[in-house]
Hints:
By secondary structure, the protein is mainly β. It has a single domain, classed as TolB, C-terminal domain (Neuraminidase, 6 Propeller). Helix content is 5%, strand content 47%. The strands form five sheets. Strands 1-2-22-21-20 form a five-stranded antiparallel β-sheet, covered by helices on one side. A five-stranded mixed β-sheet has the order 7-8-9-10-14, with no helix packed on it. A hairpin with a 5-residue loop joins β16 and β17 (215-220). The longest helix has 14 residues, at 2-15. The two termini are 22 Å apart.
Amino acid sequence: MLKFKLIGFAVVLKSLLVNTFNPAPDEFQGNRGEYSKGALCVIENFPESSGLETYQDSLLITHNDSGGQSALFVLNLNGNIIDTLYVAVGNRDWEDITQDDKGNYYIGDFGNNSNRRRNLVIYKYNIVDKQASEIHFSYSDQEQFPPEKQQMNYDVEAMCWHAGKLHLFTKNRGKKLVNHYILPDQPGEYRVSPEESLYLPNLITGADINRSGNLLALASYGRIYLFKISEDNTFFKGRYKALRFVRGAQMEGLVFVSDTDFVTSNETGKLFYFSKKDYNL
């Protein structure tokens, strides 16, 4: 944790890319705050960073999107891939990765652009014994494969772990509603219904919750949404704001490296570090 903080501070000083982010659209007015952002690195010879997680004290893990290797790539903060962890499962469309408080990683093979998939799965990967178990799920509110265009909101690219549960967020196609689904972090087969929904104008592509469990971040194209998690563990009822980030290309991965600071990755393999300056949600 300390290493991440020190590196983040150095990146911000070096980059001189200090920005005040303005809330947009109207529903975010009055929620002003400041973050500093800096270009961290570019991952070497890597076509697309789809998900992002921390590894050990000061390393990161990422993976490819659909059609890529069934592997997790360990990289340092210079963008060098220093290890490859092969996972003995398929990669139809890996979209995001998260980890629990015991060091297990969860790989979401649930990309579903066409809303036709019925074999949605999350692989629970034990980093010690290198074994993967399977969490299968389906959407109880989906009746057609695919549904009508305005109902095509069964594509998930964002996932995080919190308090023994996996939290999934739809990409918000159709009516621009982000649906929040919750399922157990144990192997099995589950049918899930939306726990809550929120209108957001941007496609949601990544998610993470800080270590204190009180701040949710959702990545999208051109925005990062921050939510104060309510005491009853609901995500969309508390205060929230948007940070504009129009130069980050198509953001895909996001991971907290402290209670306030986080790293994002995009489809071109670029990583950015966001550091708190003077921020209250």
